[in-house]
Design a protein that fits this description.
GO terms for molecular function: methyltransferase activity. By secondary structure, the chain is an alpha/beta fold. It contains 5 helices and 9 strands. The longest helix has 14 residues.
Length: 186
């Protein structure tokens, strides 16, 4: 069972679609990630971009903990259906779902630069595809001047190829999951 951990919608259960199209971030990893984000002041009033949103657990957790808005991008139709249901169930203002591929969504103009980007691509997605997404973020006006980008990958994955506008801000391993952090360059 996936649920929102804390904040105004803490405890809300999220629908996880059947099949292998989603791999929700575990409660343990989300709690560690959001503790770091809260302590760093990355949530209060922030604009969040949740790429490969799946159930919406990351974007909705950010909204529950004080983010102003979250754009959740997901492609698979049956997953989008569950995502929309989760957004409705959580009842958090500021959530918007984009039913499209991440690359097509990022090729369009950004409605507003994101303070926080949470990217949880499928683990089998090749590194070069992740690098293309990061370049689209950097080149398309999607990043605020002082933005944080978090990429979740398998712990055996290589460091993301951060575009020049982003500098590496470390990584943290949790079991089979590794979170990579980068910030926009001042």
């Amino acid at each position: 069972m996936t649920r929102l951990i804390a904040g105004t919608a803490g405890g809300t259960r999220l629908i996880t679609p059947a099949g292998r199209d989603t791999r929700p971030t575990s409660d343990r990893v989300r709690e560690a990630l959001f503790s770091r984000l809260e302590s760093g002041g990355w949530l209060d009033g922030s604009v969040v971009l949740d790429l490969y949103a799946g159930t919406g657990a990351l974007g909705l957790e950010a909204l529950s903990r004080g983010a102003r808005s979250a754009l959740l991008v997901e492609q698979a139709p049956h997953v989008v259906k569950a995502l929309r249901a989760n957004v409705s169930t959580a009842g958090l203002p500021g959530a918007r779902v984009v039913a499209d591929s991440v690359e097509r969504a990022l090729a369009r103009p950004a409605p507003e630069p994101a303070d926080l980007v949470l990217a949880d691509p499928p683990y089998p997605l090749p590194d070069d595809a992740v690098a293309r997404v990061l370049r689209l973020l950097a080149d398309g006006g999607w990043l605020a001047d002082d933005a944080l980008v978090v990429v979740e990958r398998a712990n055996r994955s290589t460091r993301p190829a951060w575009p020049d506008v982003l500098h590496d801000d470390g990584d943290k391993q949790y079991g089979t999951t590794r979170l990579w952090f980068a910030r926009t360059r001042p």
